[in-house]
Amino acid sequence: MSKDEAGPADLWQITWQNVGQLRVLHKHVFPVSYQDPFYSDVVEKHKEHCRLAYYADILVGAICCRVEIEDGRPRLYVMTLGVLEPYRRMGIASQLIRDIVAKVEQEKEKSKISEIVLHMQTSNTPGLQFYERHGFENAKLVPNYYQKIDPPDAYLLRRTVTS
After folding, report:
1. pLDDT at 4
2. Do residues 116 and 96 lie in contact, with contact meaning Cβ atoms separated by under 8 Å?
3. For 44-97, how does the pLDDT look when each residue is reduced to its tens digit (9 = 90+)?
4. What does UniProt give as the signal peptide span (predicted)?
5. 111-to-52, 69, 80, 96, 139 alpha-carbon distances in Å
6. H or E element: which one contains 80?
7. Where are the alpha helices (DSSP H) in 64-160?
8. Residue 5 confidence (pLDDT) above 50
9. Number of Cβ atoms within 10 Å of the Cβ of 22
10. What is residue 156's three-state secondary structure?
C-alpha cells in the first residue's frame, strides 16, 4: 500500500487476495466484460503496472496496464482505467495515471519503455479530455476497434515517456 500525497486514495498492488474486488469494480465501470484470463494475467504478468485505489477503505478505482512490444520496442498499454461514478471528479483517476507514468519514467533506463498508449471509444469525450490533460495525444482513429459496443470506433491515444 502507498499513500500518494497528491491524491485522495491509497494505492495498492493487485494480488490474488484482492483481484476479485477488481472483477466487481470492472463490472460496474465498463460496458464490456473481462474473462478469467484477463484477471489471471493482471496478477501473474502485469501486477507491476496495475494499481487499485481505495478511498476510506473502499475500492473505488483501478488502472491495469501491460508491457507490449510494438515495432521492436516496449511500450506500456493501458488496458483499463476506471473509477466508480460516485467517486469521480475527486482526482482518483488522475492519481492512478500519475502513479503509473511516474513509475514508467523512473524505470525508463531499465525497461526501455518510450511511450504509453491506450484505445478509447470515440464517444467518450470526457475521457479524451482527461487524457489530454495528462499529456496524451490523439494519434489516430481506429475504425471498428470494439466488437460489442456502439460506437465501435476508437481513438489510439499516446504519451511519450520522459526520464
Report:
1. 45
2. no
3. 999 899 999 999 999 999 999 999 999 899 999 999 999 999 999 999 999 999
4. none
5. 22, 12, 21, 20, 23
6. strand 73-83
7. 92-106, 108-111, 125-133
8. no
9. 22
10. strand
* pLDDT, position 111: 82
Catalytic residues: 77, 119
Q: What is the grid cell recorded at 93?
A: 483517476
pLDDT over 70 percentage in the chain:
96
What's the confidence (pLDDT) of residue 6?
61
- CA atoms of 31 and 37, how far apart (whole Å): 18
DSSP helix/strand/coil, 118? strand
Contact assessment for residue 22 and residue 14, using Cβ atoms and an 8 Å cutoff: yes
Q: The C-alpha cell of 110 is what?
A: 531499465
Choose among 140, 120, 141, 116: nearest CA to 129.
Answer: 120
Q: What is the homologous superfamily of the domain 2-160 according to CATH? A: Gcn5-related N-acetyltransferase (GNAT) (3.40.630.30)
Grid coordinates of 88 = 469521480
Q: Which three cell numbers stand for residue 25?
A: 469494480
Cell of 20: 476479485
Cell of 61: 478505482
Split at pLDDT 50, 70, 90, the class of 1 is: very low
